[in-house]
Amino acid sequence: MNVLFAIATGIMFGMGVFQLLRRDLIKAAMGFYILFTAINLLFLAVGAYDGVIPAYAGLPAQGRQTSDPLVQALILTAIVISFGSYALLLGLIAVSSRRFKTVDSDEVDHLKG
Fold this sequence. Notes:
Blueprint: H1 2-20, H2 25-47, H3 69-100
């Protein structure tokens, strides 16, 4: 299962970076969302636990633990932050598309120095 998570996370990171480097602002925003999802999947893969607690220093194992609750809290926080960031990014794209009448980042004239 770890190999599946690693492959899926790697593919999603690659797709996200590819979309992020596009000239179209909508496609770049989709790349951000794919990257946010890949990060959440990475947190999920890191927090996956097989349920075996090893015995340390000669002490017996204390029981079975299914997953780390800290990772679950991090994933929940990352989802909320990514949703807010994505909403802000889409709002900025909507404002810039109305102002400059395009979503192509090369055609925006007033951003050139």
